[in-house]
Amino acid sequence: MRNDIVEIKFEDMSRELRSMIVYESNGAMDVETPQALFDEILRTSPVVRWEMGVGFFKMEDIVAVARHRNIVSCDPNTGEAMGMGSAEPLIPLHIDGDIHKHYRKLLDPLFTPPKMKLLEPTIRATADQFIDGFIGAGQAEMYSAFCTPLPSTVFMQIFGLPLEDLDFLIEKKNRILKNEGTSFEEREAIGRVEGLEMRAHLRKRLQERLSTGLRHDDLLDTFIHFEVDGHQLNEDEIINIMHLFTIAGLDTVTSSLSCILAWFAKHPEERRRMIDHPELLPAAVEELMRYESPVPSGGHRTVTDDCEINGVPLRKGDVVYLCWASANVDPAAFESPHTVDLTREQNRHIAFASGLHRCLGSHLARIEIVAAIDQLHRRVSDYWVTPGAEVDYEFAGVRAANHLPLSFTAR
User: Fold this and answer.
1) In the prediction, which pLDDT does 410 show?
2) What structural domains does the chain harbor?
């Protein structure tokens, strides 16, 4: 047994650690610069055991746990799907074993790098449309003017949902993830109601599509007609895929783009370097995904049988918490982890998770973020945080710069 396991009651944890584990919206954690908290946890308590389970914070441990056969994501007792507004496991995130392999066999080929690359012209054209809307003013609140509508519009287009639904779906997503509940249970209850309303709307759109019998060049059409291993997806399966994709597609890229754009706005030398040398931007985005880690954790998973991983004993029924963000600043995994090196070569970060449940849309996210920032750089010669204003951050399972007032000089 290791000597770096800290045993503590949940009520005795620091407020910062509790906020992370239960996804407390805008709790005690320093949302703008959480890296100092992760550094402290790595030094003092890299493995934490409390009444219900174990939290892992080191890269080596997290990668091992994420790949272990006795760690599953679909146990309803963890509340993972409910925390996303669903009483049913969402596909493929909350599915394990052979059935998970079955779904990934369907979904993975749809999100390969070459296929996502084909979307780049559309992403850039869409970015230009939104830039046109604010560039003449010389300033904009970029979270609402750019970071939210750009990836959300791209998602609606490739998924096959009408753009007229976007405001409704964003509202439901926010009410599921960021509602005003004061406890985990209350937030879950509110999210469940909002999730039911969102699912009813998605089912309505699915049934409309099914009733026409017409084919479309989008993901929804693929889900309706795709067959793998002799199995065609039924309506409930498609809804559980649509639910997950809607929550993720309308939130994670928005949050990531906002954090990265905020970082550039605060670092003029590196910003101008990217504007002058756009070929460096893909590596820079990888480094900022590592350092910012907008999706800080892999959620709560469950141990199916007693086991030991990297010297940490786990009991059947334990809840397991994995922190991608702390792993991404682990000095055992990265040289000078708190130095943002935009040309870092060895950058095996896990900002898109690790193991069987690695982010399905990671290749799309990369292309969207790089294309969005590059298009902005083509249209402005410089930008900065608007004088007298401040960037605000929020945390509701995902970190975002949700108030991003920037000023800029148009080319």
Assistant:
1) 96
2) 5-410 (1.10.630.10)
